Amino acid sequence: MFTTIRNRYLLAADLLLLPLAAYGSFVLRLEQPDLGQYAPGFFLFIALVAPLTILFFWISGSYARYWRYASIQEFIILYTALAIATLLVGVILWFQRATSGFALVPFSVPFLFVVLAAGGITLPRLSIGLIHNVQNRRVSAPGTPQRVLIMGAGEAGAHLARQLRDHPELGMQVVGFLDDDPLKHRMHIHGVPVLGSHQAIPEVARTMCASAVIIAISGLPGRKVRAIVSLCESVGLRTKIIPGLHDLLDSRVSFTQIRDVQIEDLLRREPIATDTSAVRQLLHGRRVLVTGGGGSIGSELCRQILACNPTELVVLGHGENSVFEIYHELLRRVAMLPGDGPRPRIHPVIADIREPDRLDEVFATHRPEVVFHAAAHKHVPLMECNVREAFSNNVFGTRNVLDAAERYEVDRLVMISTDKAVNPTSIMGVSKRVAELLVHQTAKRCRRPYVAVRFGNVLGSRGSVLHTFKKQIAAGGPVTVTHPEMRRFFMTIPEAVQLVLQAAVLGRGGEVFTLDMGEPIKIADLARDMIELSGLQVGEDIEIVFSGLRPGEKLYEELFVPGEEYRRTTHTKIFIAANASSLVPANLDERVGALERATLRGDHKAMLALVQELVPNHCLEQAIAPAQPVVAAPPLMARAVGD
Predict the structure, then answer these.
(1) Cα–Cα dist 158/381, whole Å
(2) Same domain assignment for residues 354 and 434
(3) How far, in Å, CA of 243 to CA of 247, rounded?
(4) How many CB atoms lie within 10 A of CB 381?
């Protein structure tokens, strides 16, 4: 049985096969089975080559390998050990010939031995995999195996096909590859043919009687995923996918990673080329504090920062449950870090950024050198009903963080803002715009790289529209969308965090950074895609209902405030508005103080007047008392300087 084969049996096989290879090399050289006068040389050769070869096999770790999953790399190591042992024996025999004047072993025997021994030692090791495959084929999956096509005939696709072949108990039989590279068409990979491009999916599926397609191309752009999914749905094929490139290690994929296509896959962009060395250099050995550390963005920031090996990481949050969860996750990650050097210390801190005394205590205790300010109230409709909380947290809380950072000479600070701060129509948007102004003012005053990062909606974050749609679909519908023309920019959490970390590196002080997020996406299209990915049909199984704009909502979001001059940075996917600090009002502190007093009194009229002075291009009155929505879309961006 396969399960009884161990490396000790391979050692026994080598002890038998190596002498046989030696005898065969003598027979081939002499062209007769009788060794005659070369018999002493034969025994000398065996006495030298067999122990030395076994020794080098042992040193190279060949007897400690799991040959069931052997690759070409393992066999290269095996053959190298054999060649070195034989070369050493050849040198010994050369000295014997030079000193005695006669040859016990013909000169060509070592060369013949290497060839015969390589074949001999390969056979038992290859047989392990063959026996395993034969045994696996005897394991029958319940019912008829599902016939699947693999989209992508590259390394990931080939590896996946091999895994599915070696695990028939999964009930998947790969009947063909599809690839857009015409040079691969009509080729075979692991015995499976490449049958055409993605456009041939309907025809190939009918011909091969396939019932599913697995997309096995890591980093495939969202538009391509969307096209493939659309073709599969047109002929009733189920669509599966492997993770994105950032989820894979060395482009290796396992059948355990196959999953259903998710909405994030349809929105994939080309991976952002992050300068990880610069980020690591900035954060390595530093004391870092993250506000809102238990939130979606804050917790991912903590994970990425921890990978840069800071001296200390302070996770500050107001919600104890979320801080508890990320704290223990980070502890597990610290325990798994390689090496025996000093490990980052994680400090969970429960604190409210609206309490300056508590912040002062935290900064005095931990003395952070880099601060990422992610704490904020972000739900637009909810903040319309809780104006006091929106301003007290987003504006006055940010002011407290900035004051503490300046007082304790924090080297760098990055505040996470939002595209809703541009021409804001909501309480949340106005509060974040004022917070941006406070960051710019502090950067200008203390001459340190304090910057703001502005981006759109984050897929998978708490409160994301995706969670709402999933719940509505699970409940049988309807799926509610506020307006058929509602569009938003979307990012994934890893993209957002990479932007924040890059801003920390690129910032010089007082700038606003934003990601080149491509084209905005219709929320109605997002809802339709999610319904179809759930295997349902819009209008038949689930309806999409338009409920009308909610207070504070806009049809279209923008990325830059009028007057900001922006350009691309050295990072091709990141824009910078370097003149953002020039837009700070001269009496910002005085107006923010008056806004704070009006907020505490609940004086909406005074608040509107003060906000009008702080953010002249806001439309807050419409947010509090919504008017009829205007369908015309404003420009997505102002003209780019130098573009």
Answers:
(1) 49
(2) yes
(3) 6
(4) 15
pLDDT the model gives residue 469: 79
Asked whether the beta carbons of 539 and 480 are under 8 A apart, the reply is no
Q: How confident is the model at residue 364 (pLDDT cuts 50, 70, 90)?
A: very high
**CA separation for the pair 50, 206 (Å, rounded):** 57
- Structure tokens that stand for 479 in this block: 């799926």
128 backbone dihedrals φ, ψ, rounded to 5°:
-60, -50
Say which residue the tokens 């609940």 belong to: 602
User: Hey, what are 141's tokens?
Assistant: 């999956």
> What pLDDT was estimated at residue 131?
64
Pairing assessment for the beta strands 521-522 and 487-488 based on DSSP bridges = antiparallel
* Structural domain includes residue 481: no
594 and 445 within one domain: yes
CB hemisphere CA count around 330 (13 angstroms) = 31
Among all chains, which residue has been given the structure tokens 């996917």?
573
Say which residue the tokens 């590279």 belong to. 181
Range of the domain at 603: 284-460+489-517+556-624
Helix (H, G, I), strand (E, B) or coil at 408: coil
The alpha carbon of residue 431 and the mean position of all alpha carbons in its chain are separated, in whole angstroms, by 32
Is 235 found in the same domain as 383? no
Do residues 374 and 297 touch, judged by C-beta distance below 8 A?
yes
Mean pLDDT of 356-370: 95
Neighbours of 539 (CB within 10 A): 10
pLDDT score at 3: 39
Whether residues 152 and 114 fall in one domain:
no
| Whether 221 and 162 share a structural domain | yes
Name the one residue in this structure whose structure tokens are 């697995």: 214
Residue 316: beta bridge partners? 291, 349
211 with 296, same domain?
no
> For the chain, how many residues are written?
643
User: What is the C-alpha R_g of the chain?
Assistant: 33
Q: Give the whole-angstrom CA distance, residue 441 versus residue 425.
A: 23
Residue by residue, DSSP assigns 328-349 as: HHHHHHHHT-SSSS--PEEEEE
Judged against a pLDDT cut of 90, whether residue 103 lies above it is answered with no
Last residue of a domain, one of 138, 166, 193: 138
Query: Between the CA of residue 327 and those of 71, 109, 292, 347, what are the distances in Å?
Result: 40, 66, 12, 8
Q: Are 413 and 564 spatial neighbours (Cβ–Cβ below 8 Å)?
A: no
